[in-house]
Amino acid sequence: MNDGSLPGVYVHVPFCRTKCPYCDFYSVTSPEMATVWLDAVGMEARHYGDLFARVDSVYIGGGTPSLLEDAILAGLLDRLRGEFALEPGSEVTIEINPGDASIDKLRFMKDLGVNRVSIGVQSFDERELRFLQRRHTAAQAEKTFEEARASGFDNVGVDLIYGFAGHDGKAWLHSLERVAALGPEHVSCYQMTIEAGTPFGRMHAEGTLGSLDEERQADLFLMASEFLEKNGYLHYEVSNYSLGKERRSRHNMKYWRHIPYLGLGPSAHSFHGNRRWWNVRSVEEYCRRIDRGGMPVEAAESLESEQLNLERLFLGFRTIDGVALASLAECENAGTLLDRLCKSGLVSIVDGRVVPTPRGFLVADSLPLLFDHS
Ligand code: SF4
Question: pLDDT tens, 262-271?
Answer without folding.
Answer: 999 999 999 9
